[in-house]
Design a protein that fits this description.
This protein is mostly helical. It has six helices and two strands; from the N terminus they run αααβααβα.
Length: 94
């Protein structure tokens, strides 16, 4: 039974997931937010990208309302005129 579980685990887990087990949480967070960034070199993400991330991981019920997005933007960047947050700021808040 143990061999069967080990075989399933070794064939089902991708190398990327295996590498995260040896990485710092910061790298894992960066990879998560890269998935919703407009480009691989983007320095900011749209606040709606946070909701997209939550939907992607199965937490659609935790998506931010427009008012919650505005509050987040006010706290993160001091205004909500632009709807984006610097990635580094998001990482500090998470």
């Amino acid at each position: 039974m143990v061999l069967f579980i080990l075989f399933c685990a070794s064939t089902c887990i991708t190398p990327t997931l295996l590498s995260f087990s040896r990485e710092t949480p910061n790298r894992f967070k960066k990879e998560l937010f890269k998935s919703v960034a407009p480009s691989p070199t983007a320095t900011e993400i749209d606040v709606e990208g946070i909701n997209m991330l939550l939907r992607n991981i199965g937490h659609e019920s935790d998506c931010l309302s427009r008012q919650e997005q505005d509050t987040l933007l006010d706290e993160a960047v001091g205004h909500h005129d632009t709807r984006s947050i610097p990635v580094e700021k998001v990482l500090q808040l998470v």
